[in-house]
């Protein structure tokens, strides 16, 4: 009988039940999409912040002073006395957090003469295809890291041993256009190399008066075959916290447990530490400007999303429970009748709760899928990638619906207990 | 005479609002929630890109001034005049730098004079162990210098060099801080700007000025053009690395916010509408009775219109207040600063919530008036 | 002159006949009862006469006007100008006082007049309870408010659907006395009921069975 009545209530009040289902579905979809976006926003924004380029700088251990200041002319620059072996570069992708290394590029600079004027030539990987001993294959290089460069001309490739990317300022000074040829004289060996301008780029920094070439050319010019001067690495990192800061000071100061946590978290300091482990002859320096700012922005974005999510949850909860309350109160006549027929408070409460829960369940299921859809729309529109639906959200939302609908029926249930059947039936 | 009728219907409307307290509360709560979300989210949408822009200033300077032509330095008075072109609210920091080649125990170093107070603003990312020099005989050294020369905080360091007038100086400094940035600063020695001036025996000259300005790229470019025009001895540069990436990432974050806002708004507005609908559907019998008494459809619709307008207004007003509160809380929590809100958003919010309640009310009313009263009144 | 003429009225819902070929007339100032068991078509007939429903075929002439030819909007106007309705379930607006409920009928008809509304309430003996809400009134009092509301616009025809259905005997006689008073003042009255006791008050009783007129009783004889 109970089941039959429940069925009748649900099917007879079709329109009203439908409205509640709709509201629950909307509330749940709001919660689902916000939760999904919230859980994923960290990764997505982190990915976006890679636009700022490298956050780690790898230099040879002995090199004391690296000159890469953006504007200070360093004519008396001492040539770095130490170098890193080019073959060691693959090891970067073999650390514990290899998956978090987004991109890296080696650099070797040499001052050579063009028309008897000294010009800084930098050899690098543009977009090199690498085969890692672990079996992975990746493409890595400078082009992906310098997203803010404005580059004219066809894409530079590493196999192009006759091409060069020339800074805008320098090209103007030398009066060269894309396709023009120029000759470089190596300082030590007096070797002469003729190159073609493949691209002209604008970086807004000192690079604008430099020339970028494929690494082998620079190595030949500098007479440093198989060697690089420094490596820039762009890695996805977790924002720094107290533990990470302490570890950055001195990893040995951590307790065993802390050390494990630190080592297994993608803090910039632990990635730097792991890189130093696999490449004993280097020093890995975190570029604070990028690392710290990334952390700050990431935290702000996440906090913002969390607060907005909480707000949406509260609002959808209020809206749903509000409606549930309205619906149950409205049916006081029916409840009065049931009570008059001898139904106990608990029996009536059972009926109401079951009904609300069934409606809530249907609405919740519909809402979940709408919410996942909304999350995907947001993911695609903003970040151009899917937002992976987290399984965790399903029980979370389920609990929310359960809690909210029950909460929404509380005032109605209270009212019901104090309801005298006569009052209702006599229309008072 | 007509006034009597108007007075009566106004009174009945008020009665409806006052005597149906619990339902009105439900409806009012619904509209207030909608208005809160609307006001709060729109306010945040207005303000957050700006606040986020400020957060992005942690990446440091986005404009540098360099001496134009063959000059080695810029007069700081000119710099002050040039930076006055920027509204003070957008000017985060202006830091002068002056470099001097020095020796310490025969090893060459670069001594940098700067304003440490401004450094905390233009380069908040500097990781400092110890503290900034406050006395003239104190210095801060880069981590590479510290490692190379095996120096630590509290040690002393002799520094020798030449002034502009070619007078030699040789003074002893106390190390109070070690800076780590992962970039060139790691190999410099820092001293108070005024101290370096006294060592150099010159005044008000800087080689590089770093500016951190909270403004979008286009504004920065306008500013640069203005400086170029008015101050020929200054060569301003946009630090593209910072501005370009900021534009890109900030754009994404803003569109994320806009999208989230629209999703939240659409869903809450529909929620509000369904709540209003259930509250009105309940009154079908009343509508039937009024029809039986001879009320035309338009008259009934008008009554409900007035009631929903009133509900929308009150709900919108309450919602605006709560929305402001919640935008303020979020702004405080996330960015640590007060929200700037636009006053015209209050009438806007009220208008929208009135619109939503009216639409949500009139839909079921329209349905109800089309049904013949007999069907509604019979039984039940 | 007849206030109401019902000619060959039929009403069917699909293949189900609620009314079949009903003919009757009500003279001006007459009191008619429509009696019959549940499902006999009383309520359908009353709804058609009350301009709240339309017959499938046949014509209804109310105060000289064929209401079957009118649009829904025109029916609304006829209803408020010529008919005073009394319902079994009273149907008072729950959030309005007794006085306001009466005034609501004035409002939709023409112009509110508090004094007149109070007079109407006085006539039904509810002057003291004018400011009470329906839920504060007893069933009989609620029905009397309904009668006050029905007569406030001086309708040509008072149409009562089971006016005493929800009332005890004391209240029943109160209500019937009121209807008698109205009748004596010249109002035409149609009362729909299943109770022979109530039907007896009328001059004529029409008995419906299965949608047809089974019997016409002249109570005066």
From TrEMBL, chain A:
<dbReference type="Pfam" id="PF02687">
    <property type="entry name" value="FtsX"/>
</dbReference>
<feature type="domain" description="MacB-like periplasmic core">
    <location>
        <begin position="17"/>
        <end position="222"/>
    </location>
</feature>
<dbReference type="InterPro" id="IPR025857">
    <property type="entry name" value="MacB_PCD"/>
</dbReference>
<feature type="domain" description="ABC3 transporter permease C-terminal">
    <location>
        <begin position="307"/>
        <end position="420"/>
    </location>
</feature>
<dbReference type="Pfam" id="PF12704">
    <property type="entry name" value="MacB_PCD"/>
</dbReference>
<feature type="transmembrane region" description="Helical">
    <location>
        <begin position="347"/>
        <end position="371"/>
    </location>
</feature>
<dbReference type="InterPro" id="IPR050250">
    <property type="entry name" value="Macrolide_Exporter_MacB"/>
</dbReference>
<feature type="transmembrane region" description="Helical">
    <location>
        <begin position="303"/>
        <end position="326"/>
    </location>
</feature>
<keyword id="KW-1003">Cell membrane</keyword>
<protein>
    <submittedName>
        <fullName>ABC transporter permease</fullName>
    </submittedName>
</protein>
<comment type="similarity">
    <text>Belongs to the ABC-4 integral membrane protein family.</text>
</comment>
<feature type="transmembrane region" description="Helical">
    <location>
        <begin position="391"/>
        <end position="413"/>
    </location>
</feature>
<keyword id="KW-0812">Transmembrane</keyword>
<keyword id="KW-1133">Transmembrane helix</keyword>
<dbReference type="InterPro" id="IPR003838">
    <property type="entry name" value="ABC3_permease_C"/>
</dbReference>
Automatic annotation (TrEMBL), chain B:
<keyword id="KW-1133">Transmembrane helix</keyword>
<protein>
    <submittedName>
        <fullName>ABC transporter permease</fullName>
    </submittedName>
</protein>
<dbReference type="Pfam" id="PF02687">
    <property type="entry name" value="FtsX"/>
</dbReference>
<feature type="transmembrane region" description="Helical">
    <location>
        <begin position="256"/>
        <end position="281"/>
    </location>
</feature>
<keyword id="KW-0472">Membrane</keyword>
<feature type="transmembrane region" description="Helical">
    <location>
        <begin position="24"/>
        <end position="44"/>
    </location>
</feature>
<feature type="domain" description="MacB-like periplasmic core">
    <location>
        <begin position="26"/>
        <end position="205"/>
    </location>
</feature>
<keyword id="KW-0812">Transmembrane</keyword>
<comment type="similarity">
    <text>Belongs to the ABC-4 integral membrane protein family.</text>
</comment>
<keyword id="KW-1003">Cell membrane</keyword>
<feature type="transmembrane region" description="Helical">
    <location>
        <begin position="343"/>
        <end position="365"/>
    </location>
</feature>
<dbReference type="InterPro" id="IPR025857">
    <property type="entry name" value="MacB_PCD"/>
</dbReference>
<dbReference type="InterPro" id="IPR003838">
    <property type="entry name" value="ABC3_permease_C"/>
</dbReference>
<dbReference type="Pfam" id="PF12704">
    <property type="entry name" value="MacB_PCD"/>
</dbReference>
<dbReference type="InterPro" id="IPR050250">
    <property type="entry name" value="Macrolide_Exporter_MacB"/>
</dbReference>
Automatic annotation (TrEMBL), chain C:
<dbReference type="Pfam" id="PF00005">
    <property type="entry name" value="ABC_tran"/>
</dbReference>
<dbReference type="InterPro" id="IPR017871">
    <property type="entry name" value="ABC_transporter-like_CS"/>
</dbReference>
<dbReference type="InterPro" id="IPR017911">
    <property type="entry name" value="MacB-like_ATP-bd"/>
</dbReference>
<dbReference type="GO" id="GO:0005524">
    <property type="term" value="F:ATP binding"/>
</dbReference>
<dbReference type="InterPro" id="IPR003439">
    <property type="entry name" value="ABC_transporter-like_ATP-bd"/>
</dbReference>
<keyword id="KW-0067">ATP-binding</keyword>
<keyword id="KW-0813">Transport</keyword>
<dbReference type="InterPro" id="IPR003593">
    <property type="entry name" value="AAA+_ATPase"/>
</dbReference>
<keyword id="KW-0547">Nucleotide-binding</keyword>
<protein>
    <submittedName>
        <fullName>ABC transporter ATP-binding protein</fullName>
    </submittedName>
</protein>
<dbReference type="InterPro" id="IPR015854">
    <property type="entry name" value="ABC_transpr_LolD-like"/>
</dbReference>
<feature type="domain" description="ABC transporter">
    <location>
        <begin position="4"/>
        <end position="220"/>
    </location>
</feature>
<dbReference type="InterPro" id="IPR027417">
    <property type="entry name" value="P-loop_NTPase"/>
</dbReference>
């Amino acid at each position: 009988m109970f089941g039959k009545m429940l069925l009748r209530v649900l099917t007879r009040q079709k329109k009203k039940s439908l409205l509640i289902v709709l509201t629950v579905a909307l509330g749940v979809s709001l919660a689902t999409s916000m939760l999904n976006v919230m859980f994923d926003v960290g990764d997505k924004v982190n990915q976006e912040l890679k636009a700022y380029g490298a956050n780690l700088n790898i230099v040879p251990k002995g090199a004391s002073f690296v000159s890469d200041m953006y504007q200070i002319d360093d004519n008396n620059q001492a040539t770095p006395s130490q170098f890193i072996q080019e073959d060691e570069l693959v090891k970067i992708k073999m650390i514990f957090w290899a998956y978090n290394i987004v991109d890296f590029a080696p650099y070797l600079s040499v001052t050579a003469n063009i028309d008897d004027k000294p010009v800084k030539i930098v050899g690098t990987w543009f977009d090199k295809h690498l085969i890692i001993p672990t079996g992975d294959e990746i493409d890595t290089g400078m082009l992906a890291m310098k997203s803010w460069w404005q580059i004219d001309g066809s894409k530079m490739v590493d196999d192009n041993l006759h091409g060069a990317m020339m800074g805008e300022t320098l090209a103007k000074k030398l009066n060269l256009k894309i396709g023009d040829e120029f000759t470089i004289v190596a300082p030590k060996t007096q070797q002469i190399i003729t190159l073609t301008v493949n691209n002209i780029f604008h970086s807004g920094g000192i690079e604008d008066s430099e020339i970028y070439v494929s690494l082998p050319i620079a190595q030949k010019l500098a007479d440093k075959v198989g060697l690089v001067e420094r490596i820039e690495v762009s890695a996805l990192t977790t924002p720094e916290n107290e533990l990470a800061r302490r570890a950055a000071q001195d990893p040995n100061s951590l307790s065993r447990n802390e050390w494990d946590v630190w080592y297994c978290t993608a803090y910039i300091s632990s990635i730097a530490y792991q890189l130093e482990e696999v490449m004993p002859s280097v020093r890995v320096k975190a570029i604070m400007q990028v690392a710290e700012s990334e952390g700050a922005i990431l935290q702000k974005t996440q906090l913002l999303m969390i607060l907005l999510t909480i707000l949406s949850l509260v609002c959808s909860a209020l809206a749903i429970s509000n409606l549930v309350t309205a619906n149950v109160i409205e049916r006081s006549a029916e409840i009065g009748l049931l009570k008059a027929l001898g139904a106990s408070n608990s029996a009536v409460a059972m009926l109401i709760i079951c009904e609300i829960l069934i409606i809530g369940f249907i609405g919740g299921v519909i809402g979940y899928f709408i919410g996942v859809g909304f999350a995907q729309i947001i993911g695609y529109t903003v970040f151009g990638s899917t937002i992976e639906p987290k399984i965790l959200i399903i029980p979370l939302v389920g609990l929310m619906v359960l809690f909210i609908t029950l909460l929404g029926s509380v005032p109605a249930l209270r009212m019901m207990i104090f309801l005298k059947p006569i009052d209702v039936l006599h229309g008072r | 005479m007509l006034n009597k009728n108007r007075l009566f219907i106004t009174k009945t409307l008020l009665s409806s609002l006052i005597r149906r307290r619990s339902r009105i509360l439900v409806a009012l709560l619904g509209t207030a929630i909608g208005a809160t979300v609307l006001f709060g989210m729109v306010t945040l949408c207005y303000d957050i890109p700006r606040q986020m822009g400020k957060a992005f200033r942690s990446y440091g300077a986005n404009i540098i001034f360099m001496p134009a032509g063959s000059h080695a330095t810029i007069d700081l008075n000119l710099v002050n005049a040039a930076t006055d072109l920027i509204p003070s609210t957008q000017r985060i920091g202006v830091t002068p730098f002056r470099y001097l080649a020095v020796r310490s125990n025969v090893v060459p170093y670069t001594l940098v004079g700067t304003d440490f107070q401004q450094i905390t603003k233009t380069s908040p990312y500097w990781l400092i162990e110890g503290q900034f020099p406050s006395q003239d005989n104190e210095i801060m050294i880069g981590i590479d210098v510290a490692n190379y020369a095996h120096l630590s905080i509290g040690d002393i360091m002799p520094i020798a060099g030449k002034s502009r007038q070619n007078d030699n100086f040789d003074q002893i400094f106390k190390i109070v801080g070690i800076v780590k940035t992962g970039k060139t600063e790691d190999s410099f020695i820092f001293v108070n700007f005024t101290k370096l001036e006294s060592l150099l025996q010159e005044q008000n000259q800087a080689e590089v000025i770093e500016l951190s300005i909270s403004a979008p790229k286009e504004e920065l470019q306008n500013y640069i053009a203005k400086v170029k025009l008015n101050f020929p001895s200054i060569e301003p540069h946009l630090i593209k690395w910072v501005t370009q990436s900021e534009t890109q990432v900030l754009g994404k974050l803003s569109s994320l916010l806009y999208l989230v806002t629209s999703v939240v708004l659409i869903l809450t507005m529909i929620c509000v509408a369904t709540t209003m609908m259930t509250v009105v559907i309940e009154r079908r019998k009343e509508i039937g009775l009024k029809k039986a008494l001879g009320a035309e459809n338009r008259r009934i619709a008008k009554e409900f219109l007035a009631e929903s307008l009133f509900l929308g207004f009150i709900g919108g007003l309450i919602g605006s207040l709560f929305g402001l509160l919640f935008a303020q809380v979020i702004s405080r929590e996330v960015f640590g600063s007060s929200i700037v809100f636009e006053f015209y958003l209050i009438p806007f919010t009220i208008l929208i919530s009135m619109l939503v309640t009216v639409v949500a009310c009139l839909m079921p009313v329209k349905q109800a008036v089309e049904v013949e009263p007999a069907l509604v009144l019979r039984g039940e | 002159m007849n206030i109401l003429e019902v000619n060959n009225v039929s009403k069917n819902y699909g293949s189900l006949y609620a009314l079949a070929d009903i003919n009757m007339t009500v003279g001006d100032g007459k009191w008619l009862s429509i009696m019959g068991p549940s499902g006999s078509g009383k309520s359908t007939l009353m709804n058609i006469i009350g301009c709240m429903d339309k017959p499938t075929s046949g014509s209804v002439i109310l105060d000289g006007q064929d209401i079957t030819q009118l649009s829904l909007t025109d029916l609304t106007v006829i209803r408020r100008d010529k008919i005073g309705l009394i319902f079994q379930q009273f149907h008072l607006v729950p959030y309005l006082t007794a006085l306001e409920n009466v005034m609501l009928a004035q409002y939709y008809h023409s112009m509110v007049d508090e004094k007149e509304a109070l007079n109407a309430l006085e006539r039904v003996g509810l002057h003291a309870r004018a400011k009470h809400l329906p839920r504060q009134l007893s069933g009989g009092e609620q029905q009397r408010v309904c009668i006050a509301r029905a007569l406030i616009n001086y309708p040509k025809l008072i149409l009562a659907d089971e006016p005493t259905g929800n009332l005890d005997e004391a209240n029943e006689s109160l209500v019937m006395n009121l209807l008698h008073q109205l009748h004596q003042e010249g109002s035409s009255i149609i009362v729909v009921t299943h109770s022979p006791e109530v039907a007896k008050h009328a001059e004529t009783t029409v008995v419906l069975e299965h949608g047809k007129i089974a019997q016409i009783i002249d109570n005066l004889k």
